[in-house]
Amino acid sequence: MRITIHAERPDTHDALALIEELEAELAPLYPPESQHGYSVEKLIAQGVAFFVVRVHGEAAGCGGIQLYPDYGELKRMYVRPAFRGMGLAQRLIDHLAAYALARECRLLRLETGTLQHAAIRCYEKAGFYQIGPFGEYPNDPLSLFYERRL
Predict the structure, then answer these.
(1) Model confidence over 13-40: pLDDT tens digits?
(2) 20 to 30 Å CA-CA from 38: which of 19, 76, 84, 137?
(3) Boundaries of each N-acetyltransferase domain copy (predicted)?
(4) Whole-number Å distance between alpha carbons of 131 and 123
(5) Nearest to residue 18, comparing CAs of 81, 110, 86, 91?
(6) How far apart are CA 20 and CA 26, in angstroms?
């Protein structure tokens, strides 16, 4: 199986499709005030490093990282249902961690929804542990916050 991960603008055709699928998956689960994901425009405006993972050239998932002075935050993590269970999310997390380390960032953080059970298992398996809200996130009962030292 040929798996590649490359930097890509979040407004490319494949990246837009992946982000739209992620939004469609989350929309029925959470009210608007509990959907904290960046829009494509904000990903670009905030300088989020964005990556697309491909299997045999087909876009299978995406994720990004926004670097702050004290940590890097994972953003817009998503793997298409047909590609789940192949370890792509872990590969993407490893790629984002390597990106952070190359920029002397030694701490990763993320926010995810309480109903994202597979994502929660993936993050915990990858060494993330639960923390309280960080940055500008509100204390939302539908959000979980995680970090991992690199």
Answers:
(1) 999 999 999 999 999 999 999 999 999 9
(2) 84
(3) 3-150
(4) 13
(5) 81
(6) 10
